[in-house]
Amino acid sequence: MAARSSDNEISRVLSVLSEPTRIQIIRLISGSGELRSCDLLPEFEITQPTLSHHLNVLLENDVLTSRKQGRCVYFSINRGTMSLVAELMQGIASGTGEKPIAKKTAKKAAPTKKAEPAVTEVKSVLKDKSAKVKKDKDKKDKDKKKKKKDKKDKKKKK
């Protein structure tokens, strides 16, 4: 169960990090250890509200931590969360991730002929639906033409 919750956390973090601006934010903060939003803003071609949005998303998803000192808020990397992600990536990169799944040696059973009528039935149903759709479309086209003709006739009478 613990592995599943850490998998959920990693998945959530990776989803948050799928935004290039957020990756750049964590790179800058990681390189400096701790930064304020006013220190980050000149590095981007985005507005202050947009930067605040990205910082809040990173905070809400435990990628960043913050501390307030006077009127300033300092952001830093949440090392615990990023360690989980780093361990997963390191395991994948080195090939030492999860234990391999045992390969099944049993051969697959040959498909039975019972599947064939079902395919024929599906094709038949699709063909019927397609014919009905075409018939409905033709009827709509006729109705449109009739309405246009009626409009023209009314204009001629006036």
**Number of beta-strand segments:** 3
Taking strands numbered 1, 2, ... along the chain, how are they ordered across the largest sheet? 1-3-2
Q: Could you state the order of secondary-structure elements as H and E?
A: HHEHHEEHH
Give the averaged pLDDT, no decimals: 81
How would you sum up the global shape? elongated
SS field, number of helical segments: 6
**How many angstroms does the end-to-end distance come to?**
80 Å
Sheet-strand content, in percent, reads 5-15%
Describe the oligomeric state of these chains in a short phrase.
single chain
SSE class: mainly alpha
Query: Percent helix among the residues?
Result: 55-70%
Q: Rg to the nearest angstrom?
A: 31 Å
* Largest sheet features: 3 strands, antiparallel
Give structural notes.
There is one protein chain. The protein is mainly alpha-helical and 158 residues long. It is built from six helices and three strands; from the N terminus they run ααβααββαα. It has helices spanning 2-16, 20-32, 37-40, 48-60, 79-94, 115-157; strands spanning 35-36, 64-69, 72-77. Strands 1-3-2 form a three-stranded antiparallel β-sheet. The model has no long low-confidence stretch (mean pLDDT 81).
